[in-house]
């Protein structure tokens, strides 16, 4: 067989593979989600296996099953506690008259213009900045969109159940057989590269496991600190908890996520204090919300993120920052969320297969001791 024929066969094979991956992208997504969850659940499973039951240690099947049940129970319990609060929050906010909010903002901007004339110029309805901000708040407070979203989700419960069942089923086997996910990937690797590919998979597994576990602790830490902070400043426990959960989830988006959560907190502060004086009650509350966001962000930057974004993936903070910016410009928020895991995978592959290039050696030098 000539080299040209081999190249043609290789090209056709890769094209068919890409088509199949795209065509069955939902199944691929289930496998990837289960793979990530298995990284998080494996330390739990190993801890269960170390516990003696009737002087014996559990095997892989029962320990994998118990781990899966614990993860499902934690997820269901969290959602069961959160969903009623979110539903109550949506009900309260959706009952607010948008016109009242706009009138309140008119008064607020007039007050700020009087107090800070050099920074804020307000001329009633003619203010372009005023119209823009009011328009953005009106869009944010259009909870009819949220209702439509929930209706759409309710209409696809069958697909959600299929995803839930599929991911759980795949996850059980990934937990039971630690190398199963690696074996699925290695099927597509040529035999002459199999040894290097195994080393790559081991390194990726180790780095991403630390990263995703770190992300979970970061989200929970931000949620806890925000809940405490918002409750202390007088936002109210229920309102504060819902805002804190939203802020914690948004915190997964590096750098800009916390400010999205802070903007939502300010919106809730305004919407729930329309009957109060803006300069005496609402403005101080807004400033306190910003103070809580800043304090939590400082703690996150000093304590949480150095461990997660630097130590866990063995990359310099500036390097991570630039990668996130590039990913965000290429694929928006989704790109920013996926930037670090994808970059970690690419660095490991480059270290193993392209180490002859100086740039690759410099970018992966911190990974050599891993």
UniProtKB/TrEMBL annotation:
Q: Name one Pfam family in it.
A: AI-2E_transport
Major subcellular site: membrane
Task: Output one GO BP term.
Answer: transmembrane transport
- Put simply, this protein is called AI-2E family transporter
Q: How does it sit in the membrane?
A: Multi-pass membrane protein
List where the protein spans the membrane. Answer: 7-23, 29-45, 65-87, 149-175, 211-235, 241-269, 281-300, 320-346
Q: Which UniProt keywords apply?
A: Cell membrane, Membrane, Transmembrane, Transmembrane helix, Transport
- State the superkingdom: Bacteria
- Asked whether the UniProt record includes Cell membrane among its keywords, one would answer yes
Provide GO CC annotations from the record: plasma membrane
Homology family:
Belongs to the autoinducer-2 exporter (AI-2E) (TC 2.A.86) family.
Q: Where in the cell is it found?
A: Cell membrane
Q: Does the keyword Transmembrane helix apply?
A: yes
């Amino acid at each position: 067989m000539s080299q040209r024929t081999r190249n043609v066969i290789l090209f056709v094979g890769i094209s068919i593979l890409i088509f199949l991956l795209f065509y069955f992208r939902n199944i691929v997504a289930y496998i990837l989600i289960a793979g990530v969850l298995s990284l998080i659940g494996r330390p739990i499973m190993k801890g269960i296996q170390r516990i003696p039951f009737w002087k014996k240690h559990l095997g892989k099947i029962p320990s994998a099953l118990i781990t899966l049940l614990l993860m499902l129970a934690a997820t269901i319990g969290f959602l069961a506690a959160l969903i009623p609060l979110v539903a109550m929050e949506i009900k309260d906010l959706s009952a607010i008259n948008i016109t009242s909010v706009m009138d309140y903002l008119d008064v607020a901007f007039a007050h700020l213009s009087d107090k800070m004339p050099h920074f804020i110029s307000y001329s009633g309805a003619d203010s372009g900045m005023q119209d823009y901000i009011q328009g953005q708040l009106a869009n944010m407070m259009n909870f009819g969109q949220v209702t439509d979203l929930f209706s759409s989700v309710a209409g696809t419960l069958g697909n959600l159940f299929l995803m839930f069942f599929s991911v759980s089923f795949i996850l059980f086997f990934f937990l039971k057989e630690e190398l199963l996910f690696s074996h699925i990937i290695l099927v597509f690797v040529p035999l002459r590269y199999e040894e290097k590919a195994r080393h790559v998979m081991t390194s990726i597994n180790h780095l991403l496991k630390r990263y995703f576990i770190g992300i979970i602790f970061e989200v929970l830490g931000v949620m806890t600190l925000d809940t405490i902070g918002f409750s202390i400043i007088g936002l109210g426990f229920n309102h504060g908890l819902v805002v804190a959960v939203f802020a914690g989830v948004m915190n997964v988006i590096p750098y800009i996520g916390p400010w999205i959560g802070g903007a939502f907190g300010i919106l809730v502060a305004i919407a729930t204090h329309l009957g109060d004086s803006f300069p005496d009650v609402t403005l101080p509350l807004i400033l306190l919300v910003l103070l809580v966001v800043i304090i939590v962000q400082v703690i996150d930057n000093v304590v949480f993120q150095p461990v997660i974004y630097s130590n866990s993936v063995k990359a310099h903070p500036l390097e991570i920052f630039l990668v996130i910016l590039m990913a965000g410009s290429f694929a928006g928020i989704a790109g920013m969320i996926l930037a670090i895991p994808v970059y970690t995978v690419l660095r490991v592959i480059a270290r193993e297969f392209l180490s002859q290039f100086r740039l690759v050696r410099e970018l992966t030098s911190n990974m050599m001791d891993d």
